[in-house]
Amino acid sequence: MAYSYQSLTQTLIDGGIDPADAKEEAILLLTAFAGADRVTLLCDRHKLYATPALMAAVGKRLTRYPLQYILGTWDFFGCTFKVDESCLIPRPDTELLVETAITALPKGGIFADLCTGSGCVAVAILKHRPDLTAVALELYPETLSLAVENAKLNGVAHRLIPLRADLLTEGREALAAYAPLCGIVSNPPYIPRVVVDGLAPELFYEPRAALDGGEDGLVFYRKILSDYTSLLAPNAPLMVEIGYDQGDALTALGKIYLPNIPAEIICDLGGNHRVAAFRHNADSNRIS
Fold first, then answer.
1. Quick one: DSSP state of residue 217?
2. Tell me, what's the pLDDT at 1?
3. Which stretches does DSSP call E strand in 175-225?
4. Which of 2, 96, 97, 120 might form a disulfide with 50, Cβ 3.0–4.6 angstroms?
5. CA distance 91 to 146
6. Which residues lie closer than 8 Å to 186 by C-beta, 6 or more apart?
7. Nearest alpha-carbon partner for 137 in 165, 156, 176, 118
8. Nearest-angstrom CA–CA distance, 118 and 127
9. Is-contact 211 132, C-beta < 8 A?
């Protein structure tokens, strides 16, 4: 069997892929597994391509296996990352967290990236802030190894310190060795448990532990706000990615754990809540 750009696009749509995504996915599959050129594909949409690798990749994608895992790499914030089933796939939504951190983190310190996963947040920040060092905290050894590999791939491994620990249990104690921190960033699991099973089919291939934020989606936020803010230097920022409807919940949690520091809820271009930012109280040694 052979595919043209046009026929593969339609095949993907027929297989349940969103039409808005199918055109770009067809290009990525044909360039990666058939040696096609993007310009040629767009100029000659009926030219046929057939390789065993292409057939296998298309077959896998039609099972709704994530395109990113099929390709093995994915671009995020101007960097390329290796991705596999041990990590959550980097998404454009998370770029706002990186943008916020690049601007907010003070010069020349060590910041922590909690639940680092692929390392995309820490590595992207380090790539754009050569004055900083990151401690990348992650529970799963294979995921942490991937983060280290991505740091090497992007030339920042000498400024990334891998730290294997469970954020919910011994993480704070493990991270204390690097305090005071110049900031904390995190894209923790934040989807309510009851919602996880109803997500898009592709998400069933991603690690559930990277998605499941507990009964109300707020378990990791509570732990970060209650335990980790004491590791911050004066005036150091804390920034976390949040769900599109979690701004009010983070504001409320901030009033409980950081009563003197209002949450700043930052929205994406679509107007959805995306980042909650807190700044350390400069008049004390901790914000909790």
1. S
2. 84
3. 183-186
4. 2
5. 17
6. 113, 114, 115, 121, 220, 224, 239, 240, 241
7. 165
8. 15
9. no
Query: Token pair of 125, please?
Result: 């920040």
Nearest to 229 by CA among 157, 277, 189, 161: 277
pLDDT score recorded for residue 260: 85
Spatial CB neighbours of 200, under 8 Å, sequence gap ≥ 6: 64
Name residues whose C-beta falls within 8 Å of residue 144's C-beta, 6 or more positions apart in sequence.
Answer: 116, 136, 138, 162, 163, 164
Pairing of strands 133-138, 160-164: parallel
Enumerate residues 6+ apart whose C-beta is below 8 A from 232: 179, 180, 181, 182, 183, 184, 238, 280, 286, 287
* Burial class of residue 194, CB neighbours in 10 A (0-12, 13-18, 19+): exposed
One-letter amino acid for residue 132 of the chain: L
DSSP characters over 80-134: EEE--TTSPPP-GGGHHHHHHHHHHSPTT-EEEEET-TTSHHHHHHHHH-TT-EE
d(CA 133, CA 111): 6
In tens digits, what is the pLDDT along the chain, a chain of 288 residues? Answer: 899 999 999 999 999 999 999 999 999 999 999 999 999 999 999 999 999 999 999 999 999 999 999 999 999 999 999 999 999 999 999 999 999 999 999 999 999 999 999 999 999 999 999 999 999 999 999 999 999 999 999 999 999 999 999 999 999 999 999 999 999 999 999 999 999 988 889 999 999 999 999 999 999 999 999 999 999 998 899 999 999 999 999 999 999 999 888 899 999 999 999 999 998 543 333 333
Question: What 3-state class would DSSP assign to 25?
Answer: helix
Residue ranges of domains in the chain, CATH in brackets: 5-63 (no CATH), 76-279 (3.40.50.150)
Place of tokens 């004491």: 230
Please tell me whether the overall predicted TM-score, pTM, comes out greater than 0.85 for this model: yes
- Residue 144, CB half-sphere, CA atoms under 13 Å: how many? 17
